[in-house]
Amino acid sequence: MSFEQINGRRMPISVLLAVPDIEQAVRLRRQLEPYRCLVHVASDASEITESLRRFRPDVIVLDAAIAAADHTTVFTGLSRRSPNNAIPVIMLAGEEMPSGWVVRLQGNAVVPRGSCGALIYRTIVACLATASCAA
After folding, report:
1. d(Cα 84, Cα 7) in Å, to the nearest integer?
2. Tens digit of pLDDT for each residue in 84-131?
3. Which listed site, 5, 18, 78, 89, has its alpha carbon 20 to 30 Å from 53?
4. DSSP assignment of 3-66
């Protein structure tokens, strides 16, 4: 994959995809790669923390099930994610997600779990555009 500039943004878009289900991770990775997303996968809170230490993703797509399973580690890891929390967080959620979590995680958007890659990609682009305007 090349790292060219498109509309002033480095391509591909680096995505930390944090989902507990490997089948869901594979499906979403396959759906996002055609949109020139470089997808890194984490399956639990400790992998999120390690991934954030190893590279700086442009955006984090986080399944609420991971936050529910180990919310203290997730909240702590994401609160240290970058200066001014500049990395947008998109939550994948079902009905189990407590409403205050998006606020506590400083989430930028919520997308229903099971959404197609195209909707997630459009949400990524919108969050990145909003983040770059705020910077």
Report:
1. 23
2. 456 788 888 876 655 555 555 556 788 888 888 899 999 998 888 876
3. 5
4. --EETTEESSEEEEEE-S-HHHHHHHHHHHGGGTEEEEEE-SHHHHHHHHHH---SEEEEEHHH
The separation between CA 54 and the C-alpha centre of its own chain, rounded to angstroms, equals 15
End-to-end CA distance of the chain: 27
Q: Taking the CA of residue 119 as centre, how many other CA atoms within 13 Å lie in the half-sphere pointing to its CB?
A: 10
Q: Which helix (H) or strand (E) holds 112?
A: strand 109-112
| CA torsion, ordered 8, 88, 81, 134, to nearest 10 deg | 60
CATH superfamily of 5-134: Response regulator (3.40.50.2300)
CA atoms within 13 A on the CB side of 88: 24
Q: Where are the domains of the chain?
A: 5-134
